UniProtKB/TrEMBL annotation:
Its main location: membrane. This is Membrane protein implicated in regulation of membrane protease activity. It comes from the Bacteria. It is a multi-pass membrane protein. InterPro entries: Membrane_assoc_protease, NA-bd_OB-fold, NfeD-like_C.
Amino acid sequence: MDIDAWVWWLIGAVGLGIPLVLTAMPEFGMFSVGAVAGAVTAALGFGIVTQVLVFVVVSVALIAVVRPIAARHRDGKPELATGVDALKGRQAVVLERVDGNGGRIKLAGEVWSARTLDTGQTFEPGEQVDVVEIDGATAVVM
């Protein structure tokens, strides 16, 4: 029994899909898609040289185009900050004196514990402060 070339390409595509699932390396998926393209080329009756060229071109093109896009999305920061990240950089009003040991501010409509970034600095009630970071349940201000 002689198996057609396109079947071998599909077996190769599945074989390349297995490490994709096990290792979560997207490059294997791109090679798998290249193998499917090789299977289509074989099913259309093209020779082995054309099949291999299609496999290589599709695989390399996917790696060259998709991989940088995926890396940008993976490394990019979310456009909309949420949670405590959304509070960084906002202004607040001092309710109780804030120094290096503590105090209270009104931030985003809520009362927060606060302390100064510079322990020698002090803010009095009514003053505007900038939130530098959130440390647990305490806003660090300056």
